[in-house]
Amino acid sequence: MAEYERVEHDVLVIGAGGAGLRAAIEAAAAGARVGLVCKSLLGKAHTVMAEGGAAAAMGNVDDRDNWRVHFADTMRGGQYMNNWRMAELHAKEAPDRIHELEAWGALFDRTPDGRILQRNFGGHRYPRLAHVGDRTGLEMIRTLQDHAIHLAIDVHMEVTVVQLLKDGDRVAGALAYDREKGRFRLFSSGAVVLATGGIGRAFSVTSNSWEYTGDGHALAYSTGAELVDMEFVQFHPTGMVWPPSVKGILVTEGVRGEGGVLRNSLGKRFMFDDIPDNYRPQTADTEEEGWRYVTGDKAARRPPELLTRDHVARCIQREVREGRGSPHGGVFLDIAWIKERIPNAADHIRKKLPSMYHQFMQLANIDITTTPMEVGPTTHYIMGGIRVDGDSQMSTVPGLFAAGECAAGLHGANRLGGNSLSDLLVFGRRAGEYAARFAAERGVAQPPVSEADAAVARALEPFERSGSPEAPYAIQHELQRMMQDLVGIVRQEDEMKRALDGVRQLRRRAGQVGVTGNREYNPGWHTALDLDNLLTISEAIALAAIERRESRGGHFRDDHPDKDPQYAKFNIVIRRGADGSMQLERRPIPSLPAELAAIVEEQKS
Amino acid sequence: MAATTFRVWRGDKGKGAFTEYRTDITEGMVVLDAMHQIQAESAGDLAVRWNCKAGKCGSCSAEINGQPRLMCMTRMDELPANEPVTLEPMRAFPHVRDLVTDVSWNYEVKKKIRKFTPRAPDAPDGSWRMAQEDVDRVQEFRKCIECFLCQDVCHVLRDHHKHDEFIGPRFFVYTAALEMHPLDTGDRLRDLKEDQAIGYCNITKCCTKVCPEHITITDNAIIPLKERVVDEFYDPVVKLVRLIRGKKSS
Fold first, then answer.
1. Domain for residue B74, yes or no?
2. Residue B194 belongs to some domain of the structure
């Protein structure tokens, strides 16, 4: 038997961003003994990078807003590929989740009458995003963190799960290792909540941190759970493009929400040239109307810069490809221009967008109050993920729950900005509640030691090959470049097939990777262990993207540039077959109940 | 820019030595990029803690040429050219490996600070009303990314090792955010005086200087807290009033 520390929890939450923290809080409040596994230190998870805000139809700024409008906006943005039950629950419950944060100490920006202020964002009909300048994610994670530390939650910092373990059909725990000592930890639990975030590190240009290696997706897949919608990856339209070392770092949509405009090298606001038909009734006809919208005129419609992210990203890509880009291969995002419209514009920009001001000043020597930024698309978010039940967030494996980015359903083919922070609150809470209930009913399971031993042996293999010429960093870089080039923002069948071959070759090489040094805080070893997850989710993305021979939401095919109604009828589900190979299935989308269908119709105008 | 030499502290548990690496520096690179390049080129096991690489998570704190800074926000072109760059772990915390330190003490300290306790909601729907200007003051403190550079540079911790008695600038900022929160009803002044030793701070402002979020730690957080403690426990007029009214001073 391998040596490891044994730990038992009723509910084991893997991932300590917003969704994981919210799940842990809820499970602890229900009386469960909770373990919270953080890949990094507590409070450092990717949620800190969320900037713009959390969408909740509170109607504080525009009282025409309500859950029905939010529901319809989310479904339209997701091209109706969404799990409608999740979209419904999300729209209904988000306001309570935001108010709850305030009760735990969060301090959102205020309206003149002292309520929570809400800002405009792409695809949301009314100002809907509760925010704190452009550091909303930090405010949220800190509020959750500071609330959680006073509850019965054991926090396991800098611990990485390498495998989920099952007892019969149900999930029974996990094998993990702690980074500082390099020792293994065997968790037994009654239920497991995956809240591991996304997959951005499978691409070379990304706004995501190093943790985003698709761990939860791959852990769930390997344990028999279904993944869904993996072809839908969101490329955020505005990442930094220069200098090279910061390429991909996010530039918040809040810049456009505050009046920032996109221009090409000819100085033209190109977004006016390409407005999709289903958004035309809600989009401004003139620059003047767009400006009135961002300054709060309720009669005005939104400027085309605030169309959905998938569309804006493709328009930017087109401008660059057709030779109208900025010097470093992006386009210009200009917020400085608002000085023509308002007094003290520089102060206003610094107040509304402090992190952006700071980020460009420090990393690019650019003062955004005087100079346009250069921006281009960056891999930002995966709509696809672990397939879950809309109410309970349980996956297809009993006792295994998922919430936040690693779960799928809410966002369909494209996520609206601001719907992620509310997603992780609404469904983090639900996952925690149902996981605690499951654990209470079924008791703590015991993972088979033989499986844990095998997982330990596998994890240690790279040390046995310390002389190997294959280094983990090189394979990771190759994979990232390949996914960026071949399965990126514009896709074609032959390229994606090459990527699929490439993934399989890289998997063979990953099996030969060697690492040097010892087990204590060894980033080379960690990178080697991450490779397996990255390869699994890369294969899933490529496979699903090949299967969807149309363009929809975040998935754009150069060889099939239009939407195909046939493809609106199903989601693509991926699971591991009995022989260990990746299996793909078209799963029909259940039709909307009449009540929700009526809401979609009434909101179309 | 050409190749630059880095002198990186390598070792375990406080024992170690500088190891030299050379790597090519290109336009716009930050120190963290150089560390990653060195990992990929020649030192696969070089321990570096990092996360967002955008100055938002506060993980990659280190001492660069002796200055406590975030590696991800320190551009190579702002360091002296043609000179080796020295990289060391934060010295106020126990060493783990290479550039990584054990900052768990900070997490333990935070747990001991009395938690946020809001007044009853202002509206029937359970929500509150607050003025932006009241929120602004506290939002400055809530910008903190918990990089712990202020703790690293604080001489009470770094030189005098008062970790058992003193909570450090980060947690004065944290306490100030609670004490000045428009909704909070808790009282942390006795804790500040007796268990957290705010009196040890002699306002040299070293913490303010290193804060990557430019929080005015000393002037806006620590000094007002010191004043409140003084008003609470040392004001003779208040003492007299309490004596007459028979109210305890807590």
1. yes
2. yes
pLDDT band at A421 (very low <50, low <70, confident <90, very high): very high
Claim to verify: residue B113 and residue B226 sit in the same structural domain: yes
Q: Which of B36, B66, B101 is the last residue of a domain?
A: B101
Catalytic residue among A70, A76, A236, A429: A236
Q: B248 pLDDT exceeds 60?
A: no
Q: Is the pLDDT of residue B250 over 70?
A: no
d(CA A22, CA A25): 5
Q: Can you state the angle between helices A449-464 and A523-547, rounded to 10 degrees?
A: 110
**Distance (Å) from the C-alpha of residue A576 to the closest C-alpha of chain B?**
31
Q: Which residue reads 């939407």 in tokens?
A: A563
Q: Tell me which of B101, B119, B137 is where a domain ends.
A: B101
| DSSP 8-class letter at A337 | G
Instruction: List, in order, residues 6 or more apart from B245 with CB less than 8 Å away.
Output: none
Residue A355's pLDDT is what? 87
* Cβ-contact B47, B102 below 8 angstroms: no
- Asked whether residue B44 is assigned to any structural domain, the reply reads yes
Q: Is the pLDDT at B200 greater than 90, yes or no? A: yes
B22 shares its domain with B94: yes
Mean of the pLDDT values across residues A411-433?
Answer: 97
| Owner of token pair 């504080």 | A60
Write the pLDDT tens digit of every residue in B6-28.
999 999 998 999 999 999 999 89
Number of domains present in the structure of chain B:
2
Task: Let me know if residue B250 belongs to a domain.
Answer: no
Look at B44 and A364 and tell me if their CB atoms are within 8 Å: no
Is there a contact between A521 and B47 if contact means CB atoms under 8 Å apart?
yes
| Burial group, residue A299, by CB count within 10 angstroms (0-12, 13-18, 19+) | exposed
Helix (H, G, I), strand (E, B) or coil at A520: coil
Range of the structural domain that residue B73 is part of: 3-101
- pLDDT greater than 70 at residue B247: no
Tell me how many domains chain A contains: 2
Residue A478 CA to residue A203 CA, distance in Å, equals 10
Task: Return the structure tokens found at A531.
Answer: 């490779």
**CB < 8 Å to B114, chain A:** none
